[in-house]
Amino acid sequence: MLILERFRAILRAKNLSADEVGRRAGIELSYICGVESGQIVPPVPVWERIAVALEVPLAKLFYDGEALPNLRNLPRRKTADDIAGVRQRIKKSRTQPLSKSDNQSK
Questions:
Q1: pTM across the whole model
Q2: Is the dihedral of CA 93, 94, 97, 101 positive or negative?
């Protein structure tokens, strides 16, 4: 099922009009109608606003299942722990004073 079809299905299930979604999301009715008709393909930040207006998680527009999909760990893909470790090292290096050798190289 495409994002557009999910959007329409959620509109019907929640008995919402395009006008109501537009007002809730702060988006012009003509834009929402363009999305609903398939003439406009909004960027992700707009889909986020629409998801909030529909009171559904953003993932619900992109994925059919009840739970979030199980993502396989792709080669070279950083895990949350890898990213957290990098952030901690950067933060630590910012709080330490520069050594004499660091000052001379700049």
A1: 0.61
A2: positive
State CA 53 to chain mean position distance. Answer: 14
DSSP 14: T
pLDDT digits (tens, 9 = 90+) for 22-48: 999 999 999 999 998 889 999 999 999
Residue 79 has a CB neighbour count (10 Å cut-off) of: 9
Q: Specify whether the CB–CB gap between 29 and 57 falls below 8 A.
A: no
Query: What is the Cα–Cα distance from 80 to 22, expressed in whole angstroms?
Result: 35
Rounded CA separation 60/98 (Å) = 48
Q: Give the CA angle between residues 27, 29, 34 to the nearest 5°.
A: 100
